[in-house]
C-alpha cells in the first residue's frame, strides 16, 4: 500500500510542530519557528495563551458537549455577546468556516423562500474567491484547482470579476438572491475590495431586496484592527460568516444574521451536532475577552502599521523579489515578482512561517499578540532570507 494513513491531500512540509509558545512553534527536534502564519489566521492569541488554555481546561472538566436539543446557557451568552458587538441579531454556531458559509448560503435562500420567492436562489460571487471546500462552497468560486474532478457542482452561483461593481450589477436577474463576497480576499491574495464596490453592493441589495453576505472567515475577529472588517467600510451585511480566529484554535465558526435576513431560519431548517457546544463557547468567549477591547484592537492597528512600514522600507532593497505590500491591520500580503510558494518553502527552512496565496502573494498573518521585537525579528529574517534567495535566482 502506497497511500499514507493521513489522506494525502496536502503537500505537507517538513515542518512538524509538536509544541507552541507565544509567537513560536517548536518541531520534533526542538527546532524553533517564528510563526507568522498562525495556522492560517487562526491562533489570534498565539500558542498556549494562558487565558484561552485555562478557559478550555476548566470547561472540559465541567461539561464538554451536550446536544442542541437542550437549552444552552453557554451558547446564549456568546451569541448575545456577538449580537451586542456587531450588526447581527442572531447567530448560528458551526465547527468550521465552510459550515459558516453554508449556513449563510442557506439563510440567504430561505429569506427569499419565506417571502414566497423561491426562484431567487442564486448568489453572485467573485473571481478568485475562497469560501471553503464543501460542495456548495467550491461551487461558489471559479478557482479551477478547487473544483477539478468534483462535477457536477451545485447550481445557484454565478461568478463575476472581483471588485467590479458593473459586472456584479450586470449579472443580476430574476433569480438573484444576493452577493457573497470576502471584503478582503484571503486565499485569493490579500486583496481588499474597494470602498465603492462594497458600498455599491449594499445599494444594489437595498434597491432590490437582496442579501449582502460577507465571508469574513479570514478577515474577521480583530485581524484587521476592527472586530470585523465591514467596520472599515461603514457598510453592514445582512449575513456574515465568521470562523478561523474565532476560537483561537478551537475548531468553531459562526453565521451571524440580522433578524430580517434570518426570517426563514425557523425550527427544523438547520442544525449541527457539535455546533456551539459548551467547550467551543468557552474558547470563543476567552478569545473575545481579549480581542473585543479597544486597546487591543488599537494595538493590532499599531503593530500592523509597524510591520507594514518595516516591510515597505525593506522592499526597495529586494525589489528583484518583492513588488509591494497590501492588506489591513495584521492581514498583510507581500506581492512577489517570483513564485511565492517556493519562497514560502525557503522561509520555512530558515525558521520563518508564512503562507502563500494566489497572485504570487506571501501572506503575513501573525498572532495578534505580537510585540515590536517580533516585527523586528520577522523583517530581519525575511530580508536576510531574501538576500540569500537572490543567488539561485540570479544564477537561473
Ligand atoms: C479558510 C476560509 C474558509 C473555509 O474555512 P474552513 O474552516 O477551512 O472550512 C472560508 N472562507 C474564507 C474566506 C476562508 O479564508
From TrEMBL:
Binding site for pyridoxal 5'-phosphate: 97-98, 130, 215-218, 273
Keyword Cytoplasm: yes
Gene Ontology CC terms: cytoplasm
A molecular function (GO) term: identical protein binding
Binding residue positions for N(2)-acetyl-L-ornithine: 133, 272
Subcellular location: Cytoplasm
Keyword tags: Amino-acid biosynthesis, Aminotransferase, Arginine biosynthesis, Cytoplasm, Pyridoxal phosphate, Transferase
Pathway where it operates: Amino-acid biosynthesis; L-arginine biosynthesis; N(2)-acetyl-L-ornithine from L-glutamate: step 4/4
Cofactor binding note: Binds 1 pyridoxal phosphate per subunit.
Keyword Transferase listed: yes
Reaction(s) catalysed by this chain's protein: N(2)-acetyl-L-ornithine + 2-oxoglutarate = N-acetyl-L-glutamate 5-semialdehyde + L-glutamate
Source superkingdom: Bacteria
GO biological processes: L-arginine biosynthetic process
Chief location of this protein within or outside the cell: cytoplasm
Cofactor names: pyridoxal 5'-phosphate
Enzyme class: transferase
Quaternary structure note: Homodimer.
NCBIfam families cross-referenced by the UniProt entry: argD (TIGR00707), PRK01278.1 (NF002325)
Family under the similarity heading: Belongs to the class-III pyridoxal-phosphate-dependent aminotransferase family. ArgD subfamily.
PANTHER family, sorted: AMINOTRANSFERASE CLASS III, SUCCINYLORNITHINE TRANSAMINASE
Misc remark: May also have succinyldiaminopimelate aminotransferase activity, thus carrying out the corresponding step in lysine biosynthesis.
Record's protein name: Acetylornithine aminotransferase
Organism of provenance: Allosphingosinicella humi
Lineage of the organism: Bacteria, Pseudomonadati, Pseudomonadota, Alphaproteobacteria, Sphingomonadales
Amino acid at each position: 500500500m502506497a497511500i499514507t494513513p493521513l489522506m494525502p491531500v496536502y503537500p505537507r512540509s517538513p515542518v512538524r510542530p509538536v509544541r507552541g509558545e507565544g509567537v513560536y512553534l517548536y518541531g520534533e527536534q526542538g527546532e524553533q519557528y517564528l510563526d507568522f502564519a498562525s495556522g492560517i489566521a487562526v491562533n489570534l492569541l498565539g500558542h498556549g495563551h494562558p487565558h484561552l488554555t485555562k478557559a478550555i481546561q476548566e470547561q472540559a472538566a465541567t461539561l464538554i458537549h451536550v446536544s442542541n436539543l437542550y437549552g444552552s446557557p453557554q451558547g446564549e451568552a456568546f451569541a448575545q455577546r456577538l449580537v451586542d458587538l456587531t450588526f447581527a441579531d442572531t447567530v448560528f454556531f458551526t465547527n468550521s468556516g465552510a459550515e459558516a458559509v453554508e449556513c449563510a448560503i442557506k439563510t440567504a435562500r430561505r429569506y427569499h423562500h419565506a417571502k414566497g420567492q423561491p426562484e431567487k436562489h442564486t448568489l453572485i460571487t467573485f473571481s478568485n474567491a475562497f469560501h471553503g471546500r464543501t460542495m456548495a462552497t467550491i461551487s461558489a468560486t471559479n478557482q479551477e484547482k478547487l473544483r477539478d474532478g468534483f462535477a457536477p457542482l451545485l447550481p445557484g452561483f454565478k461568478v463575476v470579476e472581483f471588485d467590479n461593481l458593473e459586472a456584479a450589477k450586470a449579472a443580476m436577474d430574476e433569480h438573484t438572491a444576493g452577493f457573497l463576497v470576502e471584503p478582503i480576499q484571503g486565499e485569493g491574495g490579500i486583496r481588499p475590495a474597494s470602498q465603492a464596490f462594497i458600498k455599491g453592493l449594499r445599494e444594489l441589495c437595498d434597491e432590490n431586496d437582496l442579501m449582502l453576505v460577507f465571508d469574513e472567515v479570514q478577515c474577521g475577529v480583530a485581524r484587521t484592527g476592527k472586530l470585523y472588517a465591514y467596520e472599515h467600510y461603514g457598510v453592514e451585511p445582512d449575513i456574515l460568516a465568521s470562523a478561523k480566529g474565532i476560537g483561537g484554535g478551537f475548531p468553531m465558526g459562526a453565521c451571524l444574521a440580522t433578524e430580517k435576513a434570518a426570517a426563514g431560519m425557523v425550527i427544523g431548517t438547520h442544525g449541527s451536532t457539535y455546533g456551539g457546544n459548551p467547550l467551543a463557547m468557552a474558547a470563543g468567549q476567552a478569545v473575545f475577552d481579549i480581542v473585543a477591547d479597544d486597546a487591543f484592537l488599537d494595538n493590532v492597528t499599531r503593530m500592523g502599521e509597524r510591520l507594514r512600514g518595516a516591510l515597505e522600507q525593506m522592499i526597495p532593497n529586494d525589489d528583484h523579489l518583492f513588488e509591494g505590500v497590501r492588506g489591513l491591520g495584521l492581514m498583510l500580503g507581500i506581492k512577489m515578482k517570483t513564485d511565492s510558494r517556493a519562497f514560502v518553502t525557503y522561509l520555512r527552512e530558515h525558521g520563518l512561517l508564512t503562507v502563500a496565496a494566489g497572485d504570487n502573494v506571501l501572506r503575513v498573518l501573525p498572532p495578534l499578540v505580537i510585540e515590536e521585537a517580533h516585527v523586528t525579528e520577522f523583517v530581519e529574517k525575511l530580508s536576510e532570507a531574501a538576500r540569500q534567495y537572490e543567488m539561485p535566482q540570479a544564477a537561473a
